[in-house]
Structures are given as C-alpha cells and as structure tokens.
From TrEMBL:
Family annotation (SUPFAM superfamilies): ATPase domain of HSP90 chaperone/DNA topoisomerase II/histidine kinase, Homodimeric domain of signal transducing histidine kinase
Gene Ontology annotations of biological process type: osmosensory signaling via phosphorelay pathway
PROSITE patterns named in the record: HIS_KIN
Protein's organism: Solilutibacter oculi
Coiled coil (UniProt feature): 6-33
Family annotation (Pfam families): HATPase_c (PF02518), HisKA (PF00512)
Protein name: histidine kinase
Enzyme Commission number, as recorded: 2.7.13.3
Keywords: Coiled coil, Kinase, Phosphoprotein, Transferase
GO molecular function: phosphorelay response regulator activity; phosphorelay sensor kinase activity; protein kinase activator activity
Superkingdom of origin: Bacteria
Organism ancestry: Bacteria, Pseudomonadati, Pseudomonadota, Gammaproteobacteria, Lysobacterales
Top-level EC class as recorded in UniProt: transferase
C-alpha cells in the first residue's frame, strides 16, 4: 500500500514538474513576443510620423517660396495619417483579442463570411469581388472574434489580388470528430513562403508597398484569434499561385471558457 502511495505521489510530482516547465516555456515565449511587439510598435508608428514631418517641411518651403499649389504634399500627409490610423486600429484589435472574454457557441461561418464579404465590398467599391462560400459552414467558437478573423483574411485577399485584378476566393471546409477545418483560398499573387511561421508574426510584411502590403498585423490578428480558440492555423502559398489559409477550430471550449 505504501509503495502505491509513493508511486502515485511520484507521478503527481512529475506531472507538476512537467506543467511547471511548460508554463516557464510559455512565459519565455510571451516575453520574447512582447519585446518584438514593443520594438515593432516603436518602428511602425515612427515611420508615418517621419513621413508627415517630411511632407510638412516640403509644404512649408513651398509656401515660403510663394507656391500656393501644395495639393501633392497635403495628399501625402493625409495618406500618412490614414496609414497611422489604420495601424492604431490594428494594434487596438490585437490587444482586445488577447483580453476578450470568449462566448463559446455555435457559429454560422457561412453567414459570417457573406456578411464580411458584403462589408468588404462596401468599404472598397473599386474592388471586383468574386467569392464562393460553401453552404452549411459551421463551427464552435466566439462569433465576434471569428468575424474579425474572416475580415482580416478577406482583406488580405483583396490587398494581394494583383495589379488590376479582381478578388477571387473560395471559402470551404469539413468537419471531423474534434472540430471544423476551415479553408480560404484565393487566386492572388501569392508569396515566397520560406518560414511557415513568419507571416503570423506581428509587423511582418512579405510584400512590398507596390504589391499592396498593409500594416503587417492582419495575419498576426488571425493567429491571435486562433490561439484564443486553442486551434491551429497554417498558410500555403507560392509566388503567382495564390494562397490557402487553413484554420482548425475545436468544438470543445478552451479551459476556463463557458460553453453557451
């Protein structure tokens, strides 16, 4: 009897030690991510500020020289302000994802996809959007966060459709015993994907400005939402061959999350 008790105690202690090592590793990962995030914020917020200052200096010189036509400089200043505002919106959303209280429920992904695509078309009326959404898509998760996930992925499809090309994408998936596998495939310009994890890091831009690069936060927000759902996300792409994003969402709620 004593031997059994000692064995149980040893196993419990070993389990606690493994859990402690896992927590320490996760803490180190979060600290490293925090350092990268802080550095990225500093760099990316300073860039539009430097642009605004540079355009303002040019504007002042033209005004001092009696050149009243300053429309080009004003347009550039407004563009830099818009980029900074967009980055701030992305940073706020990224922060809110980490702190959001999850409401676990059945989510009609087909409805969310149609809604997100409609809003994308309204926000960018110049974009020609051709989308195919598989009927009957459903998963378990937080509806609000999953809508943000689709918004970010669809906006990436728009940005990287290619010069003068329309947005062409398909949303589909299938279910297994553990949850739902969602796929979003586009026919855009694709990318050279050397490190599969790189696109999901904050402030990563794998395209140049001419190709439509955004603030580098879209896929980071997607990854943060998937992590909150204890799910998985991956990306397959080649230059000129479009992109496929795969998201797996567990049916079971993460630990500590109430199932509605």
């Amino acid at each position: 009897m004593s031997a059994l008790i000692n064995q149980d105690g040893d196993e419990a202690l070993a389990a606690l030690e493994r859990r402690n090592r896992d927590l320490e590793a996760e803490l180190m990962r979060l600290r490293a991510q925090q350092d990268v995030f802080a550095s990225g914020i500093s760099h990316d917020l300073r860039a539009p500020l430097r642009a605004i200052d540079g355009f303002a200096v040019q504007l002042q010189k033209r005004l001092d020289a009696g050149e009243l036509d300053a429309g080009e400089q004003v347009t550039k200043i407004r563009g830099a302000v818009a980029r900074m505002a967009g980055l701030l919106d992305s940073l706020i959303l990224y922060s809110r994802v980490a702190r959001a209280e999850l409401k676990w429920q059945d989510v009609d992904l087909g409805y969310l996809a149609d809604w997100a695509l409609m809003d994308l078309g309204t926000a960018h009326p110049e974009a020609v959007i051709e989308a195919e959404v598989q009927p009957g898509l459903s998963a378990r998760g937080d509806e609000r966060l999953l809508r943000h996930l689709l918004d970010a992925l669809f906006d990436n499809c728009r940005r990287f459709a290619g010069p003068g090309a329309g947005v062409n994408l398909r949303v589909d998936g299938e279910r297994d015993a553990e949850g739902f596998h969602l796929r979003i495939t586009d026919r855009g310009i694709g990318m050279d994907l050397r490190d599969p994890a790189q696109p999901f890091a904050p402030f990563q831009r794998l395209h140049g400005a001419v190709q439509g690069a955004g603030d580098g936060m879209g896929l980071a927000i997607v990854d943060a939402i998937v992590q909150r759902h204890s799910g998985r996300v991956s990306l397959d792409s080649r230059p000129g061959e479009g992109c496929t994003v795969r998201v797996f969402l567990h049916d079971a709620a993460p630990a500590g999350v109430s199932d509605l």
